[in-house]
Design brief:
EC 5.4.99.-, isomerase, Glycosyltransferase, single chain, globular, binds lanosterol, 49% helix, two-stranded antiparallel ribbon, mainly alpha, Squalene_cyclase
């Protein structure tokens, strides 16, 4: 049986950690674990998922729940039928719901204080890993038979009825994911006609949609590495970019760190024109994936072809002209003496950056794509290097298993982010007797997750911002602090520092807070807004050369309402408790950030949320930020407009339910059938409560709370509904703890601020 391991590292010799692996989570297969009965229970969860896969795409993290339930000796009850709660008084019902919800939520907390959860969703991540491992000849070393079985299960479970795969579990079929997942299944040993017709259907989808000549650039890249597509059919990714002077706006050091860290190893492999071993499977794929013979493909034409299903962000004409010029003139020169010397130098520089990133992230790397690419580059540089082992040992940090199979996650987890929201949710209930040891454990987890040092050496020459004092999204081993993670964590540890010692343990040292504040102050852009990881280092027009057809807004670190609002909240909390520390700077920063938030509001009163779906998420942050800055419904027309916006989107059922297509189309769209979503409903409820809606008209809040209460399951859990996270406008990602965190938080506020009227000022 599969077992989730938390905060463990000792089995992997040589794997390093800055905090003794606190927060690390990975799954291991133990053939001896579990009774026959337990195994058959798990098997039926899997069967149930597959049976219903066309209707429900999101798994419910049942394997983790099952493990925690048996560790906690709780009988799991999957029933989603809510108990009759109608007879009691309002507050009793809410208290009852919350007590049950908290009790259940406490069983999901790990011993290390984090709430581990599935961070899957995108379907373009596993193929990178499988191609990478295949090329390195390391598939067997990392993926056991059980891994392979579960990966295969996952891939089939998320194949759409038309035979293709979407960019993410709920998306329509795309060439990018159909071709790459088909290739992955073949590399994992599936036959061309395997999967009871599924493979044939997938191949038909590919060929009917123009074949892999129409795969977007990232797909062309992976296929070229594997040897089933020619490098001449790719647009150039010259590593020489890294040798350009920094003052040029298109210097890679100025790009969004994710894009930078993905194009870095890509440019190394491109610059080398690296191709893995040409084996019989590779030769066979060359026949399977095209409508013509492989040697008859017009590679130059395919360079710019892209299936319409994949085209979210079409190339500009300027971009195609640039690529054309580079491809026809610069590349042939750089591949030949004497300019080949420059290429060699550029490759060297790129490789040094790769090693720097690996070492400063304990081989986790900033994200799932760059992780696999860096690993492959290290192997290409020296297949015998010990570094390869270190890389391979960190692959499991990205893998997660649920009843739908084994997936690759969008990050090495969402540990810190979930923990800081969880603490805010739990404390909002004010039900101290129910907290148990939850807050104490989470507190110690958060304290242990702060990044203590800057990255190594002269950070500027590696284009790194300071990191000391920041909090990452996952674990400090990942080492990349995020502005809003830092701010939310700051707010949370400040709040915990005000709670009794016997309840939550020792408060964080003031120096740690000062470091966090310092980092936040250095991260503010001139116009007051906050980006995600770094300052905005270049201009939005750079998007004209965004080569990734599937993702929008990737070229620079834009400024976001979420990040800016979180920082306003973090800094105001800090200022209240430490009024003497850098007060002038903090006040100025809050003022500027507040103005930025106001300016970001859209004419209809909403804010566009970039990391959660979408206008409900953004508007919750918009309102929270303004309220933290001291604005009220009475004094701020922005808050008035925002409330009107939210109320106008409330469904007849009393909830809110925003479709993921909102993010892509940039207009508010309801989930099909006007279904309410507990997470959207919670965000809207939290926003309206913060804007003191209760003073004006309580009814919208009462019905929304009722929706949340009615969704609770018998065991205190809440149902997993549609996918709720997003990135780069077009790809969705799972936040599997939100189903517990947000109903608790919203009902907690509802209990105290609406029913108890304690929060009205
Ligand atoms: C994340 C996850 C966390 C997220 C929040 C902290 C929630 C947000 O408020 C700020 C941005 C951030 C840190 C974020 C940025 C983009 C990430 C890293 C991800 C969504 C997880 C995966 C994604 C990454 C870019 C995936 C790789 C693909 C590309 C298209 C570049």
């Amino acid at each position: 049986m599969w077992k989730l391991k938390l905060s463990k590292g000792e089995d992997d010799v040589g794997v390093t950690s800055v905090n003794d692996h606190i927060g690390r989570q990975f799954w291991e297969f133990d053939p001896h674990a579990g009774t026959p009965e337990e195994r058959s229970q798990i098997e039926s969860m899997r069967q149930e998922f597959t049976r219903n896969k066309s209707n429900v795409k999101h798994s419910s993290d049942l394997l983790m729940r099952f493990q925690f339930a048996s560790e906690n000796h709780i009988k799991t009850n999957k029933s989603q039928v809510a108990e009759a709660k109608g007879d009691d008084e309002d507050d009793e019902v809410v208290v009852k719901t919350l007590k049950k919800a908290l009790k259940f939520f406490s069983t999901l907390q790990g011993e290390d204080g984090s709430w581990p959860a599935d961070y899957g969703g995108p379907l373009f991540l596993l193929p990178g890993l499988i191609v990478g491992l295949h090329v390195m000849g390391a598939k067997e070393a990392v993926l056991s038979i059980e891994h392979t079985r579960e990966i295969r299960r996952y891939l089939y479970n998320h194949q759409n009825d038309d035979g293709g795969w979407g960019l993410h579990i709920e998306g329509h079929s795309t060439m990018f994911c159909t071709a790459l997942n088909y290739v992955s299944l073949r590399l994992l040993g599936e036959r061309m006609d395997g999967g009871e017709g599924a493979m044939t259907k997938a191949r038909k989808w590919i060929l009917d949609h123009g074949s892999v000549t129409h795969i977007p650039t990232w797909g062309k890249f992976w296929l070229s590495v594997l040897g089933v597509y020619e490098w001449s059919g790719n647009n150039p990714l010259p590593p020489e970019m890294w040798l350009l002077p920094y003052f040029l706006p298109l210097h890679p050091g100025r790009m969004w760190c994710h894009t930078r860290m993905i194009y870095l190893p890509m440019s190394y492999l491109y610059g080398k024109r690296f191709v893995g071993p040409i084996s019989s499977i590779v030769l066979s794929l060359r026949r399977e994936l095209y409508n013509t013979l492989y040697h008859q493909v017009n590679w130059d034409l395919s360079r710019n072809q892209c299936a319409k299903e994949d085209l979210y962000y079409p190339h500009s004409i300027i971009q195609d002209i640039i690529w054309g010029g580079l491809n026809k003139i610069a590349e042939p020169l750089l591949m030949r003496w004497p300019l080949s010397k420059l290429r060699k130098k550029a490759l060297n520089t790129a490789m040094q950056h790769i090693h720097y990133e690996d070492e400063n992230t304990q081989y986790i790397c900033i994200g799932p794509v760059s992780k696999v690419l860096n690993m492959l580059c290290c192997w290409v540089e020296d297949p015998k290097s010990t570094v390869n082992k270190l890389h391979l040992s960190r692959v499991k940090d990205y893998l997660w298993i649920a009843e739908d199979g084994m997936k690759m996650q969008g990050y090495n987890g969402s540990q810190l982010w979930d923990a800081v929201f969880a603490v805010q949710a739990i404390s909002s209930t004010n039900l101290e007797d129910e907290y148990g040891s939850m807050l104490r454990k989470a507190h110690s987890f958060i304290k242990n997750s702060q990044v203590r040092e800057n990255s190594s050496g002269n950070i500027q020459s590696w284009y790194r911002h300071i990191t000391r004092g920041g909090w990452p999204f996952s674990t400090p081993d990942n080492g990349w602090p995020v502005s809003d993670c830092t701010a939310e964590a700051l707010k949370t540890v400040l709040m915990l520092s005000q709670m009794p010692y016997h309840l939550v343990g020792e408060a964080i040292a003031p120096e740690c807070l000062y470091d966090a504040v310092h980092l936040l102050l250095t991260l503010q852009n001139d116009n007051g807004g906050y980006s995600s990881y770094e300052l905005m280092r270049s201009y939005p027009w750079l998007e004209m050369i965004n080569p990734a057809e599937t993702f929008g807004d990737i070229m620079i670190d834009y400024q976001y309402v979420e990040c800016t609002s979180a920082v306003v909240q973090g800094l105001t909390s800090f200022m209240k408790l430490y009024p003497g520390h850098r007060r002038k700077e903090i006040e100025a920063s809050i003022n500027k950030a507040t103005t930025f938030i106001e300016n970001m509001q859209l004419p209809d009163g909403s804010w566009y949320g970039s990391w959660g779906i979408c206008y409900t998420y953004g508007t919750w942050f918009g309102i929270k930020g303004l309220v933290a800055a001291g604005k009220t419904y009475e004094t701020s027309h922005c808050i008035r407009k925002a409330c009107a916006f939210l109320l106008s989107k409330q469904l007849p059922s009393g909830g809110w339910g925003e479709s993921y297509t909102s993010c892509m189309q940039k207009i508010y769209i309801n989930i099909a059938g006007n279904k309410s979503h507990i997470t959207n409903t919670s965000w809207a409820l939290l926003a309206l409560i913060a804007a003191q809606q209760a003073k004006r008209d309580r009814r919208p809040l009462d019905v929304a709370a009722r929706v949340l209460i009615d969704h609770q399951m018998e065991n205190g859990d809440f149902p997993q509904q549609e996918i709720i996270g997003v990135f780069n406008k077009n790809c969705m990602i799972s936040y599997s703890s939100y189903r517990n965190i947000f109903p608790i938080w919203a009902l907690g506020e509802y209990l105290n601020c609406v029913i108890g009227k304690k929060c009205t000022t």
